[in-house]
Every structure is written in structure tokens, then in C-alpha cells.
Specification:
- The complex is a heterodimer.
- Chain A has a single domain, classed as HprK N-terminal domain-like (Udp-n-acetylmuramoylalanyl-d-glutamate--2,6- Diaminopimelate Ligase, Chain: A, domain 1).
- Chain A is 38% helix and 17% strand.
- Chain A has 5 helices and 5 strands.
- Chain B is 35% helix and 27% strand.
- Chain B has helices at 21-32, 37-57, 86-89, 99-103, 111-118; strands at residues 5-11, 61-67, 71-78, 121-127, 131-139.
- A 5-stranded antiparallel sheet of chain B has the order 1-2-3-5-4, covered by helices on one side.
- In chain B, strand 4 (121-127) and strand 5 form a beta hairpin.
- Chain B is globular.
- Classes of the chains: A alpha/beta, B alpha+beta.
- The A-B interface holds A 31-35, 37-38, 42, 50, 52-55, 57-58, 60-63, 82, 86 and B 17-21, 23-24, 27, 37-38, 41, 44-45, 48-49, 52, 104-106, 108-111, 113-114, 117.
Chain lengths: 108, 141
């Protein structure tokens, strides 16, 4: 499934979508940034509750398909602007990381 | 591509919240050179970890990236406090980062292990009180 399609489902909400055609080929969950960079695969949807600007660098360098912010975690406006500049897809989920992953397993 | 291409960066210690800019720039430069995506991913992750380490622990430093025909080399130099026990620092999970750093999602003790994991060659030279020099290489073929 593509990021654009996922963000258009009823469950999820788009926050920043700059590359809607990016294909999601797996999921990684984690909040420790180095851990995520070491373990997430290119093309993964990355579920996290971290919201500081460093998540953008991690998503960019690890080449994840999108960040999924669980628990309706909100981003500061400057983080949103930076994500747009750096072409980082970000989707919001209203529920926790586990429930988000369960939902993804039914959709992907 | 017979000559060596060099990219030099000063890693600013005051720029903590947006640290990683040099790595993101390197990623862009390597993309423009048309290198394979997985090579670019490995180089930029290893460099980001090094960059973050210099910002967190050493008050900044310098990063040089050399692109040769056979490999990409990353040389990181800082004048920070140095690493007392390199073997211990190389262990996954070992970290001396503060709680503030950890609250930002860093300090998992994965920085140096990730640098080793993603590169084909890595040396760490460190003198307590003087600083740390790290050289990493990722083979292109």
C-alpha cells in the first residue's frame, strides 16, 4: 500500500504528505532514535510517539516510507514546515502504537 | 571517477535540535553522484550517529567525507573529553548521555555500534582530555 492511500483511510490522518506514491513494505516501532536507525528497513512505516525535529533526520537517513505518530501526538509548526522541506511523509494515528500496528497489519 | 571528492563540514555544538544537517547534506550529495541507495543509506546513518555523538559529547567537531572509486570514507574529529574505555563504548546499550539527551530519543547506547554495523571498516582513536578521531569506510563494490 502507498503512503497516500494509507493516509486517506478513515483511521489515519495525513499530517505532511510530500511523496504519496511511496510504497510501504513493512513496519517498525520504536522511540529510541539510534535503535530505529539501526533496525528499521528502508521503506518501513515507522510508528513512534517522539515528536522533536530529530525524527525528521532519522526518517530521512533511514529512508523510511513514512512516520506514523501514535496517540494523536502533535508536531510543532516548525517541525511540520521542516518535514515539508525535507520531503518526509507523516501520518497521525488516534490510538497507541500496538493498536496502530494491528490496524496496519489488516491494511498492508 | 578517478579523483577523490571531498565534502567538509563543521559540526556545530549549539545546533543540537537540528543536528544531522551534515549527514542529510551528504546523503543529497551522494545521491547526485548516482551511488546505490543502500550505500548512501549506510554512509548517512553512520555519519549521523557520529555527528550526534560529537554534538552530545564533544561540543562539536569536523566531518570530512571522501568519495573514491572504491569506497566512501568518513573522518570525524573532535576535541571533546575523549573516550575512556573504547571497548565498553562499543557495546550496545552503553551510554553516558544525560537524561535530557535521552528524553529527545538519543542515548540508547547504539551510536558507535551502529557506526560499526553500517560500515566495512572503522577505527576509533581517542585520548582522554584531548579528543576523538574516527575513520569509517563503506566499500562501494
Amino acid at each position: 500500500m502507498t503512503v497516500g492511500k494509507l493516509s486517506g483511510t478513515e483511521f489515519f490522518a495525513p499530517v505532511v504528505i510530500t511523496e504519496p506514491n511511496r510504497e510501504i513494505d513493512g513496519v517498525y516501532i520504536g522511540d529510541l532514535l539510534s535503535w530505529v536507525m539501526g533496525r528499521a528497513s528502508s521503506g518501513n512505516a515507522w510508528i513512534t510517539i517522539m515528536s522533536n525535529v530529530n525524527i525528521l533526520a532519522v526518517a530521512s537517513l533511514a529512508d523510511t516510507a513514512c512516520i506514523i505518530l501514535a496517540e494523536n501526538v502533535a508536531l510543532e509548526q516548525d517541525v511540520i514546515e521542516t518535514a515539508k522541506q525535507k520531503n518526509i511523509n507523516i501520518i497521525s494515528s488516534p490510538v497507541g502504537m500496538y493498536e496502530t500496528a494491528v490496524m496496519l497489519s489488516t491494511l498492508l | 571517477m578517478s579523483e577523490v571528492l571531498n565534502f567538509h563540514f563543521d559540526v556545530d555544538h549549539e545546533d543540537f535540535t537540528s543536528a544531522g544537517q551534515a549527514s542529510v547534506q551528504v546523503k543529497k550529495n551522494l545521491r547526485q553522484l548516482g551511488l546505490p541507495p543502500e550505500i548512501i543509506r549506510r554512509v548517512s546513518i553512520a555519519m549521523y550517529e557520529g555527528e550526534i555523538n560529537m554534538v552530545i559529547h564533544a561540543g562539536g567537531g569536523t566531518a570530512d567525507v571522501n568519495v573514491t572509486e572504491d569506497y566512501i570514507e568518513i573522518i570525524l574529529k573532535d576535541h571533546g573529553p575523549g573516550i575512556k574505555d573504547i571497548d565498553q563504548a562499543m557495546q550496545e546499550g552503553f551510554s553516558t548521555a544525560t537524561d535530557t539527551i535521552r528524553s529527545l530519543g538519543f542515548g540508547a547506547g547504539m551510536g558507535l555500534p551502529n557506526m560499526k554495523r553500517y560500515t566495512d571498516y572503522m577505527t576509533v582513536q581517542s585520548v582522554v582530555g584531548e579528543g576523538t578521531d574516527i575513520t569509517m569506510r563503506v566499500n562501494i563494490n
